[in-house]
Write a structure and sequence with these properties.
The complex is a heterodimer. Chain A is α+β, with helices and mostly antiparallel strands. Chain A is built from four helices and eleven strands, in the order H-E-E-E-E-E-E-E-H-H-E-E-E-E-H. Chain A has a four-stranded antiparallel β-sheet with strand order 3-2-5-6, with no helix packed on it. Chain A has a four-stranded antiparallel β-sheet with strand order 8-9-10-11, with helices on both faces. Chain B has helices at 2-7, 9-30, 87-96; strands at 56-57, 62-67, 73-81, 105-108. The termini of chain B are far apart.
Chain lengths: 212, 120
């Protein structure tokens, strides 16, 4: 092999390696997508790259509205402030840019704290609204949901001790700092009948246990 | 080095082809479509699942899809026959067959809500 052949072989080899390396780098660069986080309440949250607790690695902490470059995969957000529910908010990045809103409900403890000073008002309002039926039902203290703007409670039909009565769920919504009935008492509440109530609120209301 | 290449020209060509082939295979492999992953949101209760085993019958209640006027099944509406005190149990039975009561329309037969006057 003379020098010319050797140089040709080396240059050819280098070109092939550069081409392949270029393809790999290009593919890697193109694998990132812009994820825009909107954050109306300026909730600080940790972004992790897996839904599995053991494999989770922190990508970064998100505070306020921001943009992050992420590869395809499943990512999860966990609020850093314990006043928010510590359940993961997961989303998928699949071959395209996306916008994700950071919004967490309050934790059960926070909601219980918010409910305490309002419980009497809420019970009084429900009892007054359904006063003609008040002697037929037992109103049980309910729960606040989301950020405290939704409330649900149960009304259980009064029956003899050995029997069980039907349980009705009622949902209230706080608008302009005033509580209003959002769903009148029903055995089961459906989203078709109340499209303005978030379905997760309806689901939680439907699972409330009555007074037995 | 030149002597080695000259003496093992075929071997060098084969090794070079293997390296290039391996790199091309790597590019193809990394570019393959990603398998869809199941997220927690996807595994929630799914109301109206067509494979749902309705009717549910018990000595106390019956839960079944409604029947249309032409005799066909109306999967958008679930009818419950249950006496006073057992209607909640009938609704709860839907969770056992992966139907979310919040996601479907439910009608109780032979029943009138005492709160009907308060319907919005």
């Amino acid at each position: 092999m003379n020098n010319k052949q050797r140089n040709t072989l080396i240059i050819g080899g280098v070109l092939v390696v550069l081409l392949v390396a270029g393809l790999l780098v290009g593919r890697w660069v193109l694998s990132f997508h812009t994820v825009t986080f909107t954050n109306a309440n300026t909730i600080s949250a940790v972004l992790t790259n897996d839904t599995d607790d053991e494999n989770q690695k922190t990508v970064q902490t998100i505070t306020g509205a921001t943009e992050v470059q992420l590869q395809d995969g499943t990512y999860c957000l966990l609020p850093t402030d314990k006043k928010y529910s510590q359940s993961l908010d997961c989303f998928d990045v699949k071959g395209a840019d996306l916008t994700h809103t950071i919004d967490f409900d309050y934790s059960k403890d926070t909601l219980a704290e918010l409910l305490s000073p309002q419980q009497t008002t809420l019970n009084t309002m429900i009892s007054a609204t359904y006063k003609p039926l008040s002697d037929q039902y037992v109103l049980k203290d309910g729960e606040l949901f989301a950020k405290g703007e939704w409330y649900a409670a149960t009304l259980t039909t009064k029956v003899a001790a050995a029997d069980q009565g039907d349980v009705y769920r009622v949902i209230l919504h706080k608008e302009a700092d005033e509580w209003k009935i959002a769903a009148y008492p029903q055995i089961v509440i459906s989203k078709q009948a109340f499209p303005n109530i978030p379905v997760d609120i309806i689901e939680q209301a439907n699972r409330l246990v009555g007074t037995y | 080095m030149n002597d080695f290449i000259a003496q093992h020209r075929k071997l060098v060509v084969v090794i070079a082809l293997l390296i290039v082939g391996g790199l091309i295979a790597l590019v193809i492999y990394t570019g393959r479509p990603q398998t869809d992953t199941v997220t927690p949101q996807d595994t929630g209760l799914d109301g109206g699942n067509e494979s749902t085993p309705l009717p549910i019958t018990s000595p106390l209640y019956t839960v079944n899809y409604a029947t249309k006027e032409d005799g066909s099944t109306d999967t958008s509406l679930i009818e419950i026959d249950a006496p006073f005190g057992y209607r909640n149990a009938a609704v709860d039975a839907l969770y056992d067959v992966n139907i979310n009561p919040a996601e479907v329309r439910i009608q109780f037969n032979k029943y009138e809500s005492p709160f009907k006057a308060y319907e919005q």
